[in-house]
Amino acid sequence: MLSLTHVTKVFGSVIGVNDVTVELGSGAHGLLGPNGAGKTTLLGLITGQLRPTMGQVHVFGERPFANPRVLRRIGFCPAADLLERRATPREWVRYLVRLSGFGRDAAAERADRELDRVGLGEAMDRPLSTLSKGLRQRAKLAGAMAHDPDLLVLDEPFDGLDPVARHDLVGLVRHWAVSADAVAGRPRTLIVASHLLHEVEALHAGLAVILGGRLVASGTAGEIRDMVDAMPSEVRIRCDAPRRLAEAVCATPGAESVRFEGEDLLVVATRQPRVLAERIAHVAVENRFAIVEMAAGDRSLEGIFGRLVRLHRGVGS
Amino acid sequence: MSVSLSGHTDRSGHKDEPLRYSLLGSTLAVAGFQIGRLISRQRLLLAGLGVIFPAAVMMAVRRTAAEGLDRDLAVTMIYALVPEAVCMLGLLVTMCPVVADELERGTWIHVSVRPGGRRALLLGTYLAAVTWTSIVAILAAFLAVLVARVPQPLPLVGMLAALVVLSTLGRAALFALPAVILPKRALVASVAVALVVEYLAGFIPAVVNQATVSLRLRSLLVEWMGWRQKLPVEMQLLIDPQPAWVQIAAVICLAAVLLGVAAKILDFRQFPPSVEI
Q: Is A303 found in the same domain as A209?
């Protein structure tokens, strides 16, 4: 359904996407990466807004850039806020559906149905300027889905939503991805870009992790967690005798490497941080070391991304 | 132009209309949407000023002329005020922001991922700009002719209306080029184009002025007013001697070529995602 082959996109001196090769079939897929990783650029290439500087993009077997045959089958919800303020959601979605090739009546029917589905039934005649960001987000989503696309691409679709709205829309999108095959009998593809792992996990989607314009990992959420867990994490210990502590730590099973930063900081790489922490506590008590600070490796998404990059570059694996 | 794809059933299970991308339908949708945007208090106030301004000038001139206004002078003044000034200003407001407005409102990205959305945006905005500006300018011409108390006003209004429509058709297409090439500086670029192309090149008695709307409009005015024989020799250099249908065809061809080039450029425009780059 969708393939990118050695795709690179350069904007002047900035590399947006760097040598990405990926093939996606039907079903739900998550594109995970921090802000500035290249997710929006990658989606721009898939949705035919951008042309690759190098490599090839094929969607439904054709190049998507300004290609009406492909664009007719794509629904796209961009990350950028909708600043069209005077129009109402009903007018806006009807307009988009008409631009997708539907007549006036069909567009009206589809827009109303979709706005009802995303929970904007009550607010569809209020100007967009009077709606909260969450409601405008729903209007954007309705605009992306109302023409019944085969490929739905959502860029940070749940950004700025409260937890209830987020839950509702995750359910809606997941339902779209699951029900489409069964009812219409056509294969459907959903791509959701996000910088939040739990959002993508909630969609039960396969994951691709992008960082610095490169795809650094792919698989299910579980596989990615396992991959991350298998990587050594760092424990940073600030104490009065780091070199003597290092001697003791080196004898500990699981300690893979040590290094010193400054006069009082010891950094230990390990795959068993809990065992190491217990051992350090014992050693410190026995030898009366004054430990000022002990911090485990960064388990946040940024930390995971950082570790994936190191893994990708062959450092620390 | 249309691209037909295979039909399919929609999610509700019944046979949906064929997947058909119609440039005309999309263009009309954009035009309707753009006219909806134009119907705002601010834009209506601007339009009102555009309607009243030429009449106010004509009234001031008529009051200063002790023996009443000469018909030819009045027509020349109304021509300069309406098919030239009002049309030009109206199109600067309505046509120039064709891409810039969409980028600013965050709507470009929604439109550019629709089949033929880019071209429909250009052509629909063109249609809306021509319609809106023509209506304003025709009302302005009507009011100015009434105020000037020109004899036989109705044929004159008809002639001015034709000049207004040709002016907007040609100049909206002319402004489409800077709008797609330099969307964020479209207004400045369009003013420069208007000055350099229409009012500098247009008055150079050489081949270069053949590609300007101003030459065609002046020539039509002279032809329809029957002034050709009255003009001094040096003024005849500033008009084209071809018949009226040639002037009209030239404006239409010029508009078609300019719009075609603008559409082709817009087809290839890429805007980097500002969020990420």
A: no
Last-in-domain residue among A225, A252, A278: A225
Chain A hits for B9, CB-CB cut-off 8 Å, are 184-185
CB contact under 8 A, B36 and A180: no
Element spanning A105, H or E: helix A104-117
A118 lies in the same domain as A235: no
Residue A317 lies in a domain: no
Q: What was the pLDDT predicted at B50?
A: 96
Question: Judging by DSSP bridges, how do beta strands B2-4 and B20-22 pair with one another?
Answer: antiparallel
Quote the domain boundaries for residue A125. Answer: 2-225
Task: Among A127-136, A236-245, B30-39, name the most confident range.
Answer: B30-39
Same domain, A235 and A291: yes
A203 lies in the same domain as A189: yes
**What pLDDT, on a 0 to 100 scale, did the predictor assign at position B44?**
95
**Residue-wise pLDDT tens digits, A257-307:** 888 888 889 888 887 777 888 888 888 888 888 888 888 765 555 566 666
- Helix residue spans in chain B (DSSP H): 23-38, 41-64, 71-79, 87-94, 100-105, 108-112, 117-148, 153-181, 186-193, 213-225, 233-236, 244-268
Closest CA of chain B from A206, distance in Å: 23
pLDDT one-digit tens code per residue, B43-73: 999 999 999 999 999 999 988 887 778 889 9
Residue A30 has pLDDT above 60, yes or no: yes
Distance of alpha carbon B113 from alpha carbon A143, whole angstroms: 11
Query: Which residues touch A35 (CB under 8 Å, ≥6 apart)?
Result: A195, B275, B276
pLDDT tens for residues B74-83? Answer: 999 999 999 9
Give dist(CA B151, CA B81) in Å, integer.
19
Residue A92 confidence (pLDDT): 95
Residues within 8 A of A (CB atoms), B 76-115 only: 104-107, 109-115
Say whether both A253 and A183 belong to one domain: no
Q: For residue A18, give Cα distances in angstroms to A52, A54, A68, A79, A311.
A: 10, 9, 27, 21, 17
Q: Are both A182 and A293 inside the same structural domain?
A: no
B255's tokens? 């508009």
- CATH code assigned at A256: 3.30.70.100
Q: Are residues A219 and A244 part of one domain?
A: no
Whether residue A255 has pLDDT greater than 80? yes
Domain count, chain A: 2
Q: What is the pLDDT of residue B7?
A: 35
Residue A41 predicted with pLDDT over 90: yes
SS3 A10: strand
Interface test with B, best of A99, A100, A125, A156 (most B CBs within 10 A): A99
Question: Is the domain of A171 the same as that of A241?
Answer: no
A286 exposed, middle or buried (CB, 10 Å; 0-12, 13-18, 19+)?
exposed
Q: Which helix (H) or strand (E) holds A233?
A: strand A233-239
